[in-house]
Amino acid sequence: MRVLVTGGAGYIGSVCTELLCDRGHEVIVYDSLWQGHRSAVDPRARFIQGRPFEPGNIATMMAEVRPEAVLHFAGDILVGESMQNPGKYFRNNVACSLEFLEAARAQNVRKFIFSSTAATYGHPEQVPITEDAPQRPVNPYGEAKLMFERILTWYHRIHGLEFVAFRYFNAAGATERHGEDHRPETHLIPNVLKVALGQKPHVEIYGTDYPTPDGTCIRDYIHVVDLVEAHILALQPGICGFYNLGNGGGYSVREVIAACERVTGRRIPAVEKPRRPGDPPRLVASAARAMRELGWKPRWPALEDIVATAWAWHQKYPDGYPD
Ligand code: UFG
User: Any idea where the NAD-dependent epimerase/dehydratase domain is (predicted)?
Assistant: First the structure.
């Protein structure tokens, strides 16, 4: 299948490109490299450097590439930044995504797969969270992702476009070649591993007074390869709609740090800090729908196994990608 991967130089997009190439798909990566790394793009894929804000350039690219499916990973991902600069999130995650969607529709692309987020649920009333739980985002990042989910629904109803929107919980882990290298890095597991590598003196714990057993936030960590496998399954014809992707188990910030200590065999000092604005206390997925309808089954549900793959990557590439 000829597949366009936007954001293929980023964390999840680069892993997806690797797995699609492994299975013999023809992959075209489109990435602005504002955040991604050129060296993260699998050499088996064709690379096109995007300039998203020039009107018409996405439509021109789509007409030239003529993919059968689009996997749209490109986007901004920082909840905190979205509280400071909401316009960036509505522009890049809604307006720019719409350019890709409209261009895909014009080329009769069969399937559009979109990276949505658990942040569309806001502060959930119940965990594990099912797909029909109320969506009340508490930050512009989640709001923008929800707006685009709704746009997808209308394109399906009106144009018959088949879409899948995956609501990611906390992606973590690595393959041998591709791992997590955000600059700046705000995510918990890579920050803890940087302490284990001796690159930082301690990890900061954002909030110890949450209504959870140890007072720190609980998240559902999912191996990036398991996450990507769901996207590959979703390429099958007839799969359409919204799916959570998580393991259905939650780990607190302190439990993550303890797991990283066990995996690395190194002590990881932590400093308690105030809460980070916009963090819900507990996000845990029910991924029963993905399992039932896609036949998806995570292969690395255990946190220590996920951390071990991230640790192997960080040890191999202590400074991340060269660019
Ligand atoms: N945390 C710390 N110290 C750190 C980094 C994070 O204590 O140095 C805490 C956070 O406050 C949070 C937890 O660890 O409670 C996880 O934080 P991450 O930044 O790793 O991930 P988030 O849960 O904030 O966000 C991630 C993605 C979002 C996505 C969300 C959905 O980055 O894009 O998961 O659950 F929307």
Answer: 3-237
